[in-house]
Design a protein that fits this description.
Number of strands of chain B: 10
Strand content of chain B: 15-25%
Number of helices of chain A: 8
Number of domains of chain B: 2
Helix content of chain A: 25-40%
Strand content of chain A: 15-25%
CATH architecture of the largest domain in chain B: Alpha-Beta Complex
CATH superfamily of the largest domain in chain A: 2-enoyl-CoA Hydratase, Chain A, domain 1
Number of helices of chain B: 14
CATH topology of the largest domain in chain A: 2-enoyl-CoA Hydratase, Chain A, domain 1
Radius of gyration of chain A: 18 Å
Distance between the termini of chain A: 24 Å
CATH architecture of the largest domain in chain A: Alpha-Beta Complex
Shape of chain B: globular
Structural class of chain B: alpha/beta
Order of helices and strands of chain B: HHHHEEEHHEHHEHEEHHHEHHEE
Number of domains of chain A: 2
Radius of gyration of chain B: 22 Å
Oligomer: heterodimer
Order of helices and strands of chain A: EEHHEEHEEHEHEEEHHEH
Chain lengths: 274, 329
């Protein structure tokens, strides 16, 4: 994120006072554009303060195929994000409800899923299972990580199988799709939620717009593959504005019987829309 | 012998391509002008054949991609017709329509009832247009899942034949939930309560292949490929140059041999010299023997053990570094 007092909204092009944008959870106060968040920002605005205990912080991908310039790209992403990989996972509470939560980071190689992302998501599911906690995953990803070849593809199977076991155990899994959620992540855990939520305007789809346009030799409508489009097509349960996400998740967690921290300490809701 | 040898494989390819072009040109001339050119063509054809032998003695990953896409390669219907009896095709996903790109059938293999699913690629343009080049819509995957549920209900094994460029990337496929259909199949196959044997026979194109390729035994023909992205797509994204597909094919480690070494494929099934289409009967015999062996071994495994093994197999796939920097699996 570039520093500076003012930020320019990529959609409405208005200059926004950065502090105001942050206060509004990085939703443009003028046009409601939901700016992309890092995984750290996502966890910060979602979980109760200081409740996050990270799992597997040091777990990273390696270069199993000896793929040209992959180690450099990995190091660059690690330096830029100060994270080992493109997903953060751990335990945290939402308005007191205990969860295992993961957040993919689009700023780490496009949130792509290689062996490490697959492993961390699978471990998160297994820990949720072992502790009988609900699993919550925020997706933001361009798909499978090409540089790990079929090993990346196999992470679709690994994560989906782990989530299958959660279903067998009767444990809830909530999936939140953020901008963008595409490719292999949609074709695995993102679309396997008991309840699937999305942020307004998020790009959600399996194939990319350009590939589809080349295939069908037609221009696609502007709103194709947006969260609202997917909702209308019956692919999602709800589109929830970021400022209401925490309370929506809290209500869902209450419904699906998440264990609650005792004593209950309810955080004030994040700043509501002005 | 030439001095310059930047890439021997590429060089052979170029020679072969030039020869084939020349042969084509002569044949066209012969047709258009009704002049006999056989005497001229014969040595060229012979030279082309020699080059092919050279190439296919040690095919490069890019050659293997070509073999996997070979139009005369045995297709699902060939395998089904040769290896199975009493075949009854099942149609439709009960939700939208019948997808001809993906076939589901009840059949007998060695007299035993099985459920067969597979990508139904055609052999010529007409067949391929009718079957969408073996690229399923969501309803194709949902039909496959329906057939697998039947297999589970009756405890019949599933045999899945994989041969697709990928799931169809069209607007309607997206609208009907291509991603959801693939994800659902992957998850359900990971815990289907009956044995699943997968044979990758041609192109294993990414999620569209994996959607019917999660199983207890994953077998792969020697010159099939299995990849997260097509070499052309990979080259276009990585180097903004689709013509570097040859390099991408090598980098992606998409051959049966590579994937066996990576633990993704359980067994590589050898093909006749020059590819499966050179001797289809030998190919069918190899596949029949392997299927028989794996099905027999899986039949005796208690279902809970089978499911645990299947889970663990996929759970272990991938290579990671832990904090202590030792590499795990």
């Amino acid at each position: 994120m570039p520093a500076g007092i003012w930020a320019k909204c990529p959609r409405c092009r208005n200059l926004i006072y950065r502090k105001e944008l942050e206060r509004n959870l990085k939703v443009c106060p003028k046009c409601s554009y939901h700016h992309r968040l890092t995984a750290v920002e996502r966890l910060e605005i979602t979980l109760d303060e200081n409740s996050f205990q990270e799992y597997d912080a040091g777990l990273a991908s390696t270069d199993p195929l000896g793929f040209e310039s992959y180690p450099d790209k990995l190091s660059e992403a690690q330096a830029k994000t100060e994270q080992a990989e493109a997903v953060l996972t751990g335990e945290g509470t939402i308005e007191g409800w205990r969860t295992v939560t993961g957040a993919l980071d689009f700023y780490f190689m496009g949130g792509s899923m290689g062996s490490a992302v697959g492993e961390k998501v699978a471990r998160a599911a297994e820990r949720a299972h072992a502790q009988r906690l609900p699993l919550l995953i925020f997706s933001a990803s361009g798909g499978a990580r090409m540089q790990e070849g079929v090993l990346s593809l196999m992470q679709l199977a690994k994560t989906s199988a782990a989530i299958g076991r959660l279903h067998d155990a009767g444990l809830p899994y909530l999936s939140v799709m953020c901008d963008p959620t595409t490719g292999g992540v949609t074709a695995s855990f993102a679309f396997l939620g008991d309840v699937i939520l999305a942020e307004p305007g998020a790009l959600i789809g399996f194939a990319g717009r350009r590939v589809i346009e080349q295939t069908i030799r037609r221009k696609l409508p502007e709103d194709f593959q947006t969260a609202e489009f997917c909702l209308q097509k019956g692919l999602l349960d709800m589109v929830v504005p970021r400022t209401e996400m925490r309370s929506a998740l809290s209500r869902l967690l209450a419904f699906v019987g998440a264990p609650r921290l005792v004593p209950v300490q309810i955080e004030p809701a994040p700043a509501a829309q002005p | 012998m030439t001095e310059r040898r930047p890439s021997p494989a590429a060089d052979l390819d170029r020679q072969l391509a030039d020869l084939e072009q020349e042969i084509d040109r002569l044949r066209r001339r012969s047709r258009e002008h009704s002049v006999p050119v056989d005497a001229e063509i014969a040595p060229l054809v012979e030279r082309a054949e020699q080059l092919r032998v050279q190439i296919y003695t040690h095919p490069s990953p890019w050659h293997i991609v070509q073999l996997a896409r070979q139009s005369q390669r045995p297709r699902l219907l060939d395998f089904l017709g040769t290896l199975c009896s009493d075949v009854m095709e099942l149609h439709g996903d009960r939700l939208y329509r019948d997808d001809p790109a993906l076939l589901a059938a009840l059949a007998r293999f060695n007299g035993q009832p099985v459920v067969v699913i597979g990508h139904n690629k055609g052999k010529d343009t007409k067949e391929n247009i009718a079957r969408n080049f073996g690229m399923p819509y969501p309803e194709g995957y949902r039909k496959a899942l329906r057939a697998m549920r039947l297999a589970e209900k009756f405890r019949y094994p599933v045999i899945s034949f994989v041969d697709t460029p990928g799931a169809y990337p069209g607007d309607e496929a997206e609208e009907r939930g291509q991603a959801e259909a693939i994800a659902r199949n992957i998850q359900e196959m990971s815990r289907l309560r009956t044995p699943v044997v997968v044979v990758i026979t041609g192109e294993g194109g990414s999620g569209g292949a994996l959607a019917i390729a999660v199983g207890d035994a994953v077998l792969m023909l020697q010159y099939a490929v299995y990849t997260v992205i097509s070499p052309e797509g990979c080259a276009a994204i990585l180097w903004h140059d689709a013509s570097r597909a040859r390099d991408a094919a090598a980098a992606l480690k998409l051959t049966a041999e590579d994937l066996h070494a990576l633990g993704v494929v359980d067994e590589v099934l050898p093909e006749p010299f020059g590819g499966a289409h050179r001797d289809p009967d030998a190919t069918f015999a190899t596949v029949r023997e392997a299927l028989q062996r794996h099905l027999q071994a899986l039949r005796t495994v208690p279902i809970e053990v089978l499911l645990d093994r299947r889970y663990e197999k996929y759970r272990r796939m991938g290579r990671i570094l832990e904090e202590s920097t030792q590499s795990i699996e």
